[in-house]
Amino acid sequence: MRPVFVQFRCAPGQTYAVADAIYDREIVSELYSTSGDFDLMAKLYIPEDQDIGHYLNEHLFDIEGIQRTLTTMTFKAF
């Protein structure tokens, strides 16, 4: 499993609805509200045999209220 962080910018007034929809998918291990350019940050683990882009598109990026995302891939834990 590969850990990946995804930040979400939500439409105004939609952050709680987006957060609920993300949790309903049951694929994130952690979900936080954040300050700055993005409203939410999720940590999830993607199976090694899955393409990261396709996996995220199929499981998260179709949620209504998401305006923009930023995906950060990880490579090595220290």
Automatic annotation (TrEMBL):
Name of the protein this chain belongs to: AsnC family transcriptional regulator
Parts of the chain that traverse the membrane: none
All copies of the Transcription regulator AsnC/Lrp ligand binding domain together span 6-76
**According to the lineage, what is the superkingdom?**
Bacteria
Species in which this protein is naturally found? Paracoccus jeotgali
Pfam families in the record: AsnC_trans_reg (PF01037)
Q: What is the lineage of its organism?
A: Bacteria, Pseudomonadati, Pseudomonadota, Alphaproteobacteria, Rhodobacterales
